[in-house]
Specification:
This protein is of the alpha/beta class and 260 residues long. Helices cover 24% and strands 28% of the residues. The protein has helices spanning 52-62, 68-77, 106-115, 148-154, 172-178, 211-219, 229-236; strands spanning 14-16, 19-21, 27-29, 36-37, 82-85, 99-103, 120-123, 136-142, 155-166, 195-209, 241-254. An 8-stranded mixed β-sheet has the order 4-7-6-5-8-9-11-10, with helices on both faces. A 3-stranded antiparallel β-sheet has the order 1-2-3, with no helix packed on it. It binds S-adenosylmethionine (SAM) and zinc ion.
Length: 260
């Protein structure tokens, strides 16, 4: 039975030929790569997300394996029905079981569907996830906006949400090259009134990275736009370095209903 619901009327969507269709006859075609666009583009707030260029840049970078330590750790958490929230290009979706993934960027979802043939991917906005209530055992959410009410709605009562944020020392050697006073990430877990933080786990590794790859990574971070040309050039002349990649995996669970 389908857990994907119609973005127009919230009824279940079922496979009908090359489309997904609800009982009210709203239908959404499968693309060549096998994903479905469930974004109602005339709705305010449905921005297209990351551009094609940044999608491809991230795809090429991740394929080099520098974040594999996180991919392996997240892969081990996946069980039951899995949803990758803001999946990007689906790099972390190594699970063989039932896996759904969505992102607001069509290009990201296209890449995800192309590289993970068994995953079910759709384009959608985090503000109204087209997934039925209480249908997900494991939700994963990496480096993306937080929407705890939607996360709590789609999770089964005993489901887990794994949300990943950068660790305090993430890319610290890169920051040391760029800035006189590099600051550390604060590792602050997002607060929620409908989910509670059950566990936090740190995953970290040192990777050897070429200066070209380091610059490519840098250009994908928010630091890129805040750094002067002079400081950027320090990175270009750095040569290969050992770089810390560090992540915090936050496990959230649904608040237990209050006993009366
Ligand atoms: C930094 S990327 C992380 C992608 C992926 N989780 C990963 O780690 O490779 C953030 C992603 O969030 C997506 N995104 C941003 N706002 C969104 C929204 N309102 N609904 C769905 N996806 C959104 C972007 O398109 C982008 O792919
Ligand atoms: Zn419908």
């Amino acid at each position: 039975m389908s857990i994907i619901v119609c973005p127009k009327c919230r009824e279940k969507l079922n496979i009908d030929g090359n489309s997904l269709r609800c009982i009210n006859n709203h239908s959404f075609d499968f693309s060549r790569e096998g994903y479905v666009n469930l974004l109602l583009t005339n709705k305010s707030g449905d921005k297209k997300g990351d551009s094609k260029e940044s999608a491809h840049a991230r795809h090429n970078f991740l394929a080099k394996g520098y974040y594999d330590v996180l991919k392996n750790a997240i892969g081990k958490k996946m069980q039951g029905t899995v949803l990758d929230i803001c999946c990007g290009e689906g790099y972390y979706d190594t699970y063989d079981g039932e896996l759904y993934g969505f992102d607001i960027s069509k290009e990201m979802v296209r890449l995800a569907a192309k590289s993970n043939k068994s995953g079910k991917y759709f384009v959608a906005n985090l503000s109204q996830i087209p997934i039925d209530d209480k249908s997900i055992d494991t939700a994963v959410h990496l480096f993306a906006p937080f929407n705890d009410r939607e996360f709590a709605r789609i999770l089964k009562d005993d489901g887990n949400l794994y949300s990943v944020i950068p660790g305090e020392n993430h890319l610290i050697e890169m920051k040391e090259l760029l800035y006189d006073v590099p600051y550390k990430n604060d590792e602050k877990a997002p607060d929620s009134s409908c989910l509670y933080l059950a566990e936090r786990e740190k995953v970290s590794e040192k990777v050897h990275i070429s200066s070209e790859d380091l610059f490519e990574l840098f250009s994908m971070t928010p630091y890129f736009y805040r750094t002067s040309e002079q400081n950027k050039s320090r990175l270009k002349s750095s040569g290969d370095i050992d770089l810390t990649v560090e992540f915090v995996i936050l496990k959230y669970r649904k608040n237990k209903p209050k006993e009366i």
